[in-house]
Design brief:
This protein has one domain: SOS response associated peptidase-like (hypothetical protein yedk fold, Alpha-Beta Complex). It is built from 4 helices and 13 strands. The longest helix is centred in the first third of the chain and has 10 residues. This is Abasic site processing protein. GO terms for molecular function: lyase activity; peptidase activity; single-stranded DNA binding. One of its GO terms (biological process) is proteolysis.
Amino acid sequence: MCGRFACSLNPEQIVERLHKDNYCREDIQVDCQDFRPSYNVAPIHQIVTLYENNNQKSLKTMEWGYVPSWIKKLPINRPINARQETLEQTKGFYVSSKDTHRCVIVAEGFYEWKKPGNGTKKPYYIKRKDGQLMMFAGLYDINELTDKSYTCAIVTTEASKEFSSIHTRMPVILNQDQVNTWIDGSIPWSSRVIDLMKSFEGELES
C-alpha cells in the first residue's frame, strides 16, 4: 500500500537529480505547470511522472487516481495503487495501459503506518538509504472525464523482508537500469517487464 509520499522538489530540481543519479542521460521535456511540491502528497493531487512518448522522455503532472480510457463514467473510488498480482492477469482494469502507458512516479520517500498492537498507528517515513530518488513503477491512462485527462496509479508488490515488519506491501521501486525498460512503450507487456515488479532489494531507512 502506498497512500502518501513526499516530493518537495520542483521540476527543475527533479530533472537535475534524474541526470545526476543516472536515471536519464538525454534531454527531458517538462510539462508540470500544475505541480506543487509537498512533503505530504495525497490521492487526487497532481504528481510528477516520468514517461516516454515518441522516444522523448518527459516529466508530466498527472492526477493520482487512475481512470482507464475505456470507462464512460467517473468512478467514485479511483485506485491509487495497482497490485502486481492484478497486472499479471491477462485481462482486467489496467489492460489498456500495460503495453504502452507505463510511467514512473517521482518521490523522495513514502509514508506507511504500522499498528503496534494497542489500537494506534505509528507513522514511518521510508526512503532509500543511498539518498537517491524513489522511482515508483506506475501506469497511466488518458480520459477526458477528468479535469487534466492524465491519471495514474502506483504499482505495489509484496513487501521485502526488511520492510515486512512495517507493512505487507510496498511500492515497486525501480533502479537506474530498470526505469528505461519500464517506460519504453516499444517493449510489450512480457516477462521482461513483469520481472521488474518485485520487492526492492536495496537498503531502506525509516
